[in-house]
Write a structure and sequence with these properties.
This protein is α/β, with parallel strands linked by helices. The chain is built from six helices and six strands; from the N terminus they run E-H-E-H-E-E-H-H-E-H-E-H. It is an enzyme of class 2 (transferase).
Length: 189
């Protein structure tokens, strides 16, 4: 099995629980992973602290964290061969900058690299309702090869906690990223 090199970007959109659940899931999938590079915006850290009441994003030593302006991060260049980027949650501002080729920080630069190299970009957008600008930006990113995966949970697995609800979205994200995982499958035993 070829191990994946994954970028996880966390923006300041509401939904820090999605990033937390993704981090926990990636730890469980470490046998399928070569490297995980993480970049968080300043707003992402503030929102995490507000929504989750902690700074546990500092508690993932298996991942390499990069500052939002570190253009020396390996995934700022296509030569590093990171194959997947997951933006979770993805703010509409970040999505708009990606859609219009504005690489003003490491998140948007990494997304630009992933798209230009024809690799997998998964944007877990977390906003409602969508304006026409949002929809057009989602269309542009999709046409460029990205995948828009709204943070719309499912309930047929009968989740019992907020983390399990978020897990229904993260399970889809991990499927889209090509990971082999155990998860609820509709009408499968």
């Amino acid at each position: 099995m070829v191990k994946k090199k994954v970028i996880v970007a966390v923006t300041g959109a509401s939904g820090s629980v999605y990033a937390k659940v993704l981090f926990d899931a990636l730890l469980k999938l470490k046998d399928q992973i070569e490297a995980v590079g993480v970049v968080m915006s300043d707003n992402a850290k503030e929102v995490w602290q507000f929504e989750l009441g902690n700074q546990d994003y500092n508690q993932f030593p298996d991942f390499k964290f990069y500052s939002k302006n570190d253009f020396n991060a390996p995934f700022a260049s296509g030569s590093a061969k990171y194959d997947t980027m997951i933006i979770v949650p993805c703010s509409m501002g970040t999505l708009g900058r990606i859609a219009h080729g504005i690489s003003n920080d490491l998140i948007t630069r990494a997304a630009d690299v992933i798209l230009k190299e024809r690799r997998k970009l998964i944007a877990v957008v977390r906003d409602t309702p969508f304006s026409l600008i949002h929809i057009n930006n989602m269309k542009t990113v999709t046409e460029a090869g990205g995948i828009i995966c709204p943070a719309n949970p499912s309930f047929y697995s009968l989740p019992k906690s907020i983390e399990e609800v978020a897990g229904t979205v993260i399970s889809r994200v991990l499927d889209l990223a090509g990971f082999e995982q155990e998860s609820y499958r509709w009408q499968e035993k």
